[in-house]
Specification:
Helix content is about 45%, strand content about 15%. By secondary structure, it is an alpha/beta fold. Strands 3-2-1-4-5-6 form a 6-stranded parallel beta sheet, sandwiched between helices. A 5-stranded parallel beta sheet has the order 12-11-13-14-15, with helices on both faces. A 4-stranded antiparallel beta sheet has the order 7-10-8-9, with helices on one face.
């Protein structure tokens, strides 16, 4: 409400009050009415409802009544106009605010999308505001939207599972998305829709149970978080410390920032058959939990043996990478299928690498010559320039000898393997159901010195390597 409208509204109210008081006093003086009769007569006169007189009026009383009617009509008209102006102004202000917000959202780029403004969403929004980054919130609760409007938070009112709403939020230009809705099915639907609209988007989803976590990861989430489980661990740590009990080192609060990571133990992995203590020492990470057959074990016994199919939850400092020396290595990934390309971009990024995509052999050669990456994963069947031809071209340049070349193909024939190795491929990996095999091959090749390179057609984990499979 603008200052001028506010003044008009107050003026109209005061005039109406003055009219009622004046009429009441006039009837009490002229007609000797008691206060109740005077107020009643004033109200029915000013509002012109047409009720009968309380008592017959004198000549002076009729003149006073006529003047009161005329004045009352004017005051009521002024009051009605002030009320109408206030309502119209409020509507116009809301529409102007919505138009301004839509314009601001349409200009966002490399921003974040927060789906849900509940308890977890409040905390996420507060952190994003403190970080000074651009973001927009999707929320369907009108009360929550009103709260965000008062705080100046960019938001869109509606169901976050709607594809139209995600597009309005600029998902194709966004950098990351937080799926923080109240139910796992809703978060699953948001994750599926978001991944389809933006295959390279970084997605973190809230989940409430182990079964939902697996589904969310398959749907396209890069990682998941269970707020109640995390809060429970923190509360347990706090109560132990407050009551003088010994707090396990893995649960002690620290001012340092740590990251958690789930590690899948695949069949044939070097992790199988080893103890929790042995793995923790080798990875230089704390092991917080072990998930086996859908059951979670917090702070597993150090002598517990790891089995195929287990999942291990680790905690460590971001600066202490799981594979020392492999963090942020550049890896070119070449495939003309955008779905496959985006899948391996996510997997490589999740494993700590910096993936550089290419959609054709010619594009790959240009990137390799310019960026000189540490490794290149090349699909065999590419348009115009095959994967084998890419390997041959790379090996003709002495400055690119350090690059590990992995040919990725569904052709299991020995002839294709021999052609690839003769063309200069360091390794040949057969496409299969296990997408982790290719990532394992990249890790294995980059952790050994170039002098030990030798051709191999086997994917998966090296029998001598001690690299956990990160999927």
């Amino acid at each position: 409400m603008t200052p001028s409208i506010s003044r008009e509204f107050r003026t109209a109210f005061l005039l109406t009050l003055a009219m009622v008081l004046g009429g009441t006093c006039g009837y009490m003086y002229i007609e000797d009415y008691d206060p109740v009769e005077a107020i009643y007569m004033t109200v029915i006169t000013v509002t012109t409802v047409g009720y009968g007189e309380v008592r017959p009026l004198s000549q002076q009383g009729r003149v006073f009544t006529a003047l009161l009617i005329l004045g009352g009509l004017g005051v009521l008209a002024y009051f009605g106009q002030a009320v109408a102006d206030r309502v119209v102004s409020q509507i116009q202000s809301d529409k102007a605010g919505e138009r301004k917000m839509k314009k601001q959202i349409s200009k966002l780029s490399a921003h974040y999308i927060v789906c849900g403004f509940g308890g977890v969403g409040h905390g996420a929004v507060q952190a994003l505001r403190q970080a000074g980054v651009s973001f927009v919130v999707l929320e369907m609760c009108p009360e929550s939207c009103a709260e965000m409007r008062e705080k100046g938070i960019l938001h869109i009112e509606g169901n976050a599972t709607s594809e139209e709403l995600l597009l309005r939020a600029g998902i194709k230009r966004a950098r990351g998305l937080l799926a923080l809705l109240h139910t796992d099915p809703d978060n699953l639907f948001v994750t599926l829709t978001a991944r389809e609209l933006n295959p390279t988007l970084r997605i973190i989803s809230r989940c409430e149970g182990p079964s939902s976590e697996k589904k969310l990861m398959r749907a396209g989430a890069d990682s998941t978080m269970a707020p109640f489980a995390t809060a429970g661990m923190q509360i347990a740590s706090d109560i132990l410390a407050a009551t003088g009990e010994s707090v396990p080192e893995d649960l002690k609060s620290s001012g340092e920032k740590h990251v958690t990571c789930w590690i899948d133990v695949l069949e044939g992995s070097s992790m199988v058959g080893r103890s929790i203590e042995n793995l923790a020492n080798e990875m230089d990470r704390k092991i917080l939990g072990l998930r086996r057959s859908g059951l979670d074990c917090l702070l597993p016994e150090t002598e517990k043996i790891v089995l195929p199919g287990d999942r291990i939850l680790t905690l460590g400092d971001p600066s202490n990478e799981l594979e020392e020396g492999l963090s942020s290595r550049n890896v070119v990934i070449v495939d003309d299928n955008p779905v496959v390309l985006n899948l391996y971009i996510r997997l490589l990024r999740r494993s700590g690498f910096h993936p550089i995509p290419a959609g054709s052999g010619q594009e790959a050669l240009e990137i390799i010559r310019e960026r000189k990456p540490d490794a290149a994963v090349v699909d065999l069947e590419l348009p115009f320039l095959s994967g084998i031809e890419v390997c041959e071209s790379v090996r003709q340049d002495p400055s690119l000898d350090h690059i590990r070349l992995i040919l990725f193909t569904s052709d299991e024939s020995e002839a294709t393997r021999e052609r690839a190795l003769q063309a200069g491929a360091t390794e040949v990996v057969i496409k299969g159901a296990e997408s982790a095999e290719l990532i394992d091959a990249v890790i294995r090749l980059l952790r050994r010195p170039p002098s030990t390179d030798h051709p191999s057609s086997e994917g998966g984990t090296d029998a001598e390597g001690r690299i956990p499979e990160i999927v």
